Fold this sequence. Notes:
This protein has helices at 14-25, 51-58, 72-80, 96-99, 122-128, 164-188, 222-231, 298-304; strands at residues 7-11, 30-34, 39-41, 46-48, 63-64, 85-89, 106-110, 133-140, 150-157, 238-242, 245-256, 266-268, 274-277, 281-290, 296-297. The chain has 312 residues and is of the alpha/beta class. Strands 5-2-1-6-7-8-9 form a seven-stranded mixed sheet. Strands 10, 11, 12, 13, 14 and 15 form a six-stranded antiparallel sheet that branches. A two-stranded antiparallel ribbon has the order 3-4.
Amino acid sequence: MSRNLRIVFMGTPEFAVGSLQALLENNLNVVGVITAPDKPAGRGQKIRMSAVKKFAIDHDLPVLQPTNLKSSSFINDLKALNSNLQVVVAFRMLPKVVFEQPEFGCFNLHASLLPQYRGAAPINWAIMKGEKATGVTTFFLKSKIDTGDIILQKKVKIDGDETAGSLHDKLMKTGAELVVNTCQLIEAGEPHVQAQQTNKKELIAAPKIFREDCEINWNQDTQTVYNFIRGLSPYPAAWTTLNDLNFKIYQARKEISAHKLAVGEIETDDKTLLKFATQDGFIACDVVQLEGKRKMSIADFLRGYNLKTSKD
């Protein structure tokens, strides 16, 4: 039995814009958008609106920006939109009073094949852990984060040189298609759902990543370090210490070869090559950023910076 959907969309970053755009392009009825409040950002700390808000305004969609999702004023404003389905993509944890409101439920898009990689940073962790594939999942919300019944899933290949940035873009596109397909299933009638199987011996989590989590441990094999750098590029970026300064590595190449250097020791020709020793090879830097400087190619960096090595 067909239903007339009235969708409230909830999301904040660019990743969510892909899904909102796909809903509109497929003529699904979005009656309102919920996103994060405007906040200061960048060096000038200018007040900026979220990517989702910008898109919503450009498409004449009503926007709500609550600071407290349990406040009576927000709940009343949400009810006034008279929605019967909520779609959540990269937003925040919702209270029961919100996600239990619509008649046809509230579903979330998650950038992994649940139940694997539950948490805030599934794209980063999948690459850091050396996965060959990941995917996207839509599921109905429950109180415990990322645990609801699965509606649809789609697998996505992780290429050998994939970064978090490139995988983000692939999953945004695939996820947008999955959101549309999920809405169409709900529109047509009750979708078939499947409970998440959590009796596996090892479930890998994807917790939020902090600065201290991004320091490179050179005392590992080359592939592990390479995965780590790719999984944190372009944000928040893997870093190490170079001549007592913070040194971020955005792009690099791996080189498996025997050597007699200490792990973390560098080799350079002072022109186009800078590489760090690992247990079984090297990581050669391509795009880097020294503390207080702009992001640049390794050639530009070496042209303007005098490195001290163990040979000096």
